[in-house]
UniProtKB/TrEMBL annotation:
Any one of the GO BP annotations: UDP-N-acetylglucosamine biosynthetic process
Protein name, per record: N-acetyltransferase domain-containing protein
InterPro entries in alphabetical order: Acyl_CoA_acyltransferase, GNAT_dom
Domain N-acetyltransferase: 146-266
PROSITE patterns assigned to the protein according to its UniProt record, in alphabetical order: GNAT (PS51186)
Organism (species): Aureobasidium subglaciale (strain EXF-2481) (Aureobasidium pullulans var. subglaciale)
GO MF annotations in UniProt: acyltransferase activity, transferring groups other than amino-acyl groups
Ranges of Pro residues composition bias in the record: 117-126
CDD domains: NAT_SF
Lineage: Eukaryota, Fungi, Dikarya, Ascomycota, Pezizomycotina
Residue span of region Disordered: 76-140
Length: 281
């Protein structure tokens, strides 16, 4: 997307060799570099800071998700090339310009990441339940049967899920999280056909039957977005227009309480997805 934000489409089978019990630095070179960069951030934030088990951090959704990684241009002294300067140019998150200083070089350091998980999804977590991070286990085989209704979701409409938002501690409060969220939502609003490709007639009929026979199958994404937000970050996500779904209650993931929050974004003109003005709920 730019010199300081990289975009990775679903890596699919490229993650087949990813060892979830090992650090990103030891992974096969066949694993996309952008994904390894994303994992470098996720390991620092979730595994080291929040004590998420390393083997739970990579899940089955990673292979089918869209990923973004933000980079900072970090100066290193020519007298000690292994010592990174603690800081980031004020424009480094959005510009490729970094003149540096005499006697110094610059390196791209991954400092933030987010992923977008397309439909389908497993059932919403039960209030008061406890599970591994983000429905890591217990998913229906095809996830087509995982319908669940809430006050703000009819249990049928296709939605996307943002997750794994993380920024290295030294680079927080610089607007990088906002940059990543905006990048993901803007891309989604313009690429509905990539989020939910048209179904074959046979798949559409199967979906119709799963929805009860008489119900219309959801073959388009109409802008509905979900986040499983860590409870203490509810106000932060609310600043982006996400609304808490009280009927989802709270549940525990990796000993951290979570809540469900929804938002509907406008589907852009570049996408063939039908534009509708309905609101959440």
């Amino acid at each position: 997307m730019s010199e300081f934000i990289s975009f990775l489409p679903p890596p699919g089978l490229a993650l087949a060799k990813y060892d979830s019990a090992a650090l990103h630095t030891t992974q096969s070179p066949d694993v996309p570099e952008v994904f390894r960069d994303a994992m470098s951030v996720r390991e620092d934030v979730f595994v080291k800071e929040q004590n998420v088990a390393l083997e739970n951090e990579v899940d089955m959704d990673d292979a089918r998700s869209f990923h973004w990684v933000a980079y900072a241009s970090v100066g290193t002294s020519s007298s000690d090339s292994n010592t990174a300067m603690g800081g980031v140019d004020k424009d480094s998150a959005t510009s490729a310009e970094n003149p540096g200083r005499k006697g110094s070089t610059a390196m791209r350091l991954p400092v933030g990441t987010i992923r977008l998980v397309p439909p389908p999804h497993p059932p919403h977590p039960e209030p008061g339940s406890s599970q591994k991070i983000d429905n890591h286990e217990g998913l229906p085989q095809d996830m087509q049967s995982g319908f669940s209704k809430t006050d703000m979701h009819d249990g049928k409409e296709a939605y996307i899920k943002l997750g794994r938002l993380s920024v290295l501690e030294a680079f927080r409060k610089l607007g990088l999280a906002r940059l990543l969220i905006d990048a993901a939502l803007t891309w989604a609003s313009e690429n509905g056909d990539k989020i939910l490709p048209p179904r074959s007639p046979a798949a559409a009929e199967q979906r119709r039957l799963e929805l009860g026979g008489g119900a219309e199958a959801e073959d388009v994404w109409r802008g509905l977005v979900l986040v499983h937000a860590q409870a203490y970050l509810e106000k932060y996500w609310a600043s982006f227009g996400f609304i808490r779904d009280s009927s989802m209650g709270e549940w525990e993931e990796e000993k951290i309480m979570h809540v469900g929050m929804w938002k509907r974004v406008e589907v852009g003109a570049q996408s063939p997805v039908a534009r509708k003005s309905s609101v959440v709920g």
